[in-house]
Amino acid sequence: MEAAAVAMEAAAVAAVPVRLWVKTEPFLVGVLPVPPPARLGPHYLRKMAAYARARAAEGCFPRLSWPRWRHIACGKLQLGRGLAWLYFELFHSLLRGDPPRRLEWAEAEAACANADELERERSKLSVDTLQFLLFLYVQQVNKVSLRRSLIGEEWPSPRTKSPSLTGKSACENKNWNDQDHRAFVQSHLLDMLELLLEPEQLTASSHSTHSSLVSYEAVCALSFLIEGTVKKSRTVRPLHELALWQPCHGQNGYSKVSRAFSFPKLESWLRFCLTTNPFGMTACLKSGKKLAWAQQVEGTTRRAKIACNTHVVPEVFPMVIMSQVYKQTLAKSSDTLVGAHVRIHRCNESFIYLLSPLRSVTIEKCRNSTFVLGPVQVSVHIHSCDNVKVIVVCHRLSLSSTAGCTFYILTPTQPLILSGNQAVSFAPFHTHYPMLEDHMAQVGLATLPNYWDSPMLVCKESGDTSVFHLLPPSDFYTFVIPFEMEGDTTETPGGLPHAYQKALSQREQKVQIWQKTVKEAGLTKDQRKQFQILVENKFYEWLVQTGNRQQLDSLVPPAVGSKQAAG
């Protein structure tokens, strides 16, 4: 009888053509790619929820102010102040989407003369309490499971299998893996719903009962994680809109009288309707548009693969995934990239220029390569890379398991050094292209404040400050982007720090002195010719030794038959 009842309920839900899925953004750019502190576990978050509701008059509910979160995080959860601000700012910036507001905040922060003034500015900020609780809860997706570690699935980092661009299984970053996102929400749905319940709907042990009601406001908060469509519509709608659709009321238990949902019915409806994200990484790899941006290099079996889902729907940030670009220069400024989440995977000995305003960028398992990126609105994460250079203006930079990498950055937040890094170098952003300042305005990034030289060591095992250093001015050179574009930017936005500008000026003076010495040497025509040959030979040797010969060679336009595709 029980099985028959379950089957009948499943058939009833299937009859309502609502399709729900877990949103990509909260996991992809909202979750720090590191196991969360133990004090952010479900038990403590339930206590935090009760505390916040009980102190609604003090700025804890329905919106949580920065001073109250600082008190909870530092006083109750025993988090450091820097980590408390990191989580608060990460969530706040994720939802503060419009560039003008981002620029206003940057201007206000840059105008602060000291720490007290900065704290007063921060005290003006607040976030939706229920959504923030869910945001903190989903940090658990990167929690290392002791049980799974013991049986070999996860040690010491996530090893969930999912398709790669090559079509084979690959060990994936959980922040990108939409299959993990769905599994996490399905497994923890009961906990998350209970976290959103009003106190009178909970037992003494903070759990739900069969008669518990879920408020409409709680379902609105859950829209932070879940969205979907009605019937065969291509219009993406938030969960709370779909939940109020009349044909769903019988399944999700909505009552117009109480303006609330039956807890068990809502949970059951959500579980039945949750499906694979049609705009996630899995769908992008399986059915996304393949882009012929890269060339096949002769003498290698590696084949570059690039896919995107930009042709799907306008309401969702697009994805571009590229893998195995090898020994070549790839340069694009394209509508396909605008506002996209970009994943760059296993690219070696290459120079990649993506000169468009981007949403986020993840660079994984790359070696001996240079990445020049357009302004990145949310985050750049570098994982398991060796000897790469990244040149970017971005809201946030984080790195884990890197070795010998150099980051030339302009960023309004502290770079995050997670676990497993060695010989990291930071330097000021040092290049420009004609559309750069226009692209910065499009994503809401300014030249101040700039914390390129103030990294934050997030993990205990990364607490050794010797893992990073600031690039000495004597080793600093500007970077020239070798492509012509329309636009007004003619110099590095914000200029260079004094010590680095001084080093460049001194080097330029030496060149001028050398040119003057050569000019005044009184060489004959034959001597000048011999001298020119000598200099050219030395320059060629330098090009080969430094690897710059390959970069110059790869800038030569390909033959007509192998031309990189537009798009």
TrEMBL record:
Domain C-CAP/cofactor C-like, chain residue ranges per copy: 300-445
Highest taxon, organism lineage: Eukaryota
InterPro entries, alphabetized: C-CAP_CF_C-like, CAP/MinC_C, CAP_C_sf, CARP_motif, TBCC1, Tubulin-bd_cofactor_C_dom
BP GO terms, sorted: maintenance of centrosome location; maintenance of Golgi location
Keyword Cytoplasm found: yes
Keywords on record: Cytoplasm, Cytoskeleton
Intracellular or extracellular location(s): Cytoplasm, Cytoskeleton, Microtubule organizing center, Centrosome; Cytoplasm, Cytoskeleton, Spindle pole
Coiled coil stretches, renumbered: none
Cellular component terms per the entry's GO annotation: spindle pole centrosome
Name of the molecule in the record: TBCC domain-containing protein 1
Organism: Accipiter nisus (Eurasian sparrowhawk)
Source taxonomy: Eukaryota, Metazoa, Chordata, Craniata, Vertebrata
